[in-house]
Amino acid sequence: MVQKYGGTSVGDAARIRAVADHIVRTAKSGKDVVVVVSAMGKTTDDLLRLAGDVSSVHPPREMDMLLTAGERVSMALMCMALADLGIDAVSFTGSQAGIITDTIHGKARILEVRGDRIREALAAGRVAVVAGFQGVSTDRDVTTLGRGGSDTTAVALAAGLAASSCEIYTDVTGVFSADPRIVPGAAKLARLSFDEMLEIAATGGRVLALRSVEFARNHHVPLQVRSSFTWEAGTTIDEEEPSMEQPLVTAVTHDTSEAKITLPTVPDKPGIAAKLFHGLAGKSINVDMIVQNSSLHGTTDISFTLPKADLQAGMQVVEELASEIGAEPPQADDGIAKVSLIGAGMRTHPGISATMFEVLAANGINIEMISTSPIRISCVVRVGAVEQAVLALHAAFDLEEDGTGN
Ligand code: ADP
Ligand code: ASP
Ligand code: MG
Question: Rounded to an integer, what is the distance from CA 347 to the centroid of its chain?
């Protein structure tokens, strides 16, 4: 089985010993255990800050060298804690574990999981401890998998090694109906489908990294999200069963990590959008929402959202295109946030968006962009209003612990 422990779970020496204790219990029950660890506490953020203090130039290859160091510390300390408890454990970097990725530093994609050394360690009766969030590229450079990427390491290893289960241990007791830090009355969800979890992860519910959920769905790896503090039963994420009860709304999520770019007065003719989004894709920029109005006098506006971290690179692409096609200069806006409703039952129930818009209106919150999928509705609002929006929607759809859940 694969067990992944997040940053807070291994945040200090006492936490590492507590986790080691739990691993020993699992190993002694006769299971082959592969452990994936994140960097301790806020280590990754601290390393990022340090890079900023040292230089304004951050070559992507060197950033990945730097950031992968955090997980290396955790894996070595975890093996020492396990040794202290009489368990033979051996640590592996992503590269040593045979996690092969593409060459996109900072958000590399896993191409293959070889795992030979892990299999050898397990066959020798040892616990394998793997550094999360990293791999080695087809160009033999160390890469990272994007923030929260240790989740992806865990799921990829579970798939590659055909593990019987994949447990993600974190600092909350499962996936909740909203971020418990914002909504204290949020309810723990016992079970979710991959599709719902994908939407939750894609819209800011950072309890699982989006790529890890994509990987789990594509490779049929059921996930358990649990607490490394209480060890109680958490949330199961797996395939949707036909009989599975489908609540109208399962969760409210929010995301403050995106920004918006608007390109005004674009000539309304074929090929412009293609050029724009081709240019953005060429820089590996993930565009989320896109809005284009129908034109009134031969020109139109295109707005889209993208990660704040990519705002500068995105503006460069759009500015070049704007001068090429004679459009007005584009505008950047980093004061936005997105609030979303997710629920498998939305597929068959119209009218949920109307209720959502009414709740936002009643709270005086203006909607700037809207997008939907069969099981999600998202609205872009001002960042200052997003917490109020989450609280109001969570209450309006009766999602509290003791609510009826529709
Ligand atoms: P880890 O370091 O274990 O990977 P993360 O900080 O990445 O932990 O993810 C856990 C955090 O996700 C929780 O502390 C919680 O604040 C946040 N979170 C956001 N949305 C949700 C949600 N819907 N359910 C549970 N946790 C959520
Ligand atoms: N340490 C990395 C991060 O902070 C990866 C992870 O924790 O999953 O994003
Ligand atoms: Mg995480």
Answer: 24
| Average of per-residue pLDDT across 203-220 | 96
Output the pLDDT for position 350: 80
**Spatial separation of the C-alpha atoms in residues 238 and 101, rounded to whole Å:** 26
**Residue of the CA atom closest to atom 27 of ligand 1:** 179
pLDDT tens column, 295-326: 778 889 999 999 999 999 999 999 999 999 98
CA distance 345 to 353: 13
Q: Please list, in sequence order, all residues whose beta carbon lies within 8 angstroms of the beta carbon of residue 221, skipping any fewer than 6 positions away.
A: 155, 158, 159, 163, 166, 215
Q: Which ligand sits nearest to residue 154's alpha carbon?
A: 2
pLDDT in tens, 29-87: 999 999 999 999 999 999 999 999 999 999 999 999 999 999 999 999 999 999 999 99
Closest ligand by atom to 9 CA: 1
Residue whose Cα lies nearest atom 21 of ligand 1: it is 179
Measured from the CB, is residue 38 less than 6 Å from ligand 2?
Answer: yes
Give the Å distance between the CA of 145 and the centre of ligand 2.
9
Residue to mutate, 40, 155, 189, 206, ligand 1, most ligand atoms under 8 Å from C-beta = 206
**Residue to mutate, 3, 38, 42, ligand 2, most ligand atoms under 8 Å from C-beta:** 38
* Banded model confidence at residue 405, pLDDT cuts 50, 70, 90: very low
Handedness of CA 393, 397, 401, 402 (dihedral sign): positive
406: pLDDT strictly greater than 50: no
What residues have CB less than 8 Å from 359, skipping those under 6 apart? Answer: 392, 393, 396
Q: Which amino acid is at 352?
A: I
Q: Which domains are seen in the chain, by residue range? A: 2-171 (3.40.1160.10), 240-406 (3.30.2130.10)
CA of 279 to the centre of ligand 3 (A): 30
Query: With a threshold of 0.90, does the pTM exceed it?
Result: yes
The number of angstroms, rounded, from the C-alpha of 28 to the middle of its chain's C-alpha atoms is 32
**Residue whose C-alpha is closest to residue 34's, from 148, 123, 110, 107:** 123
| Cβ of 6 below 6 Å from ligand 1 | yes
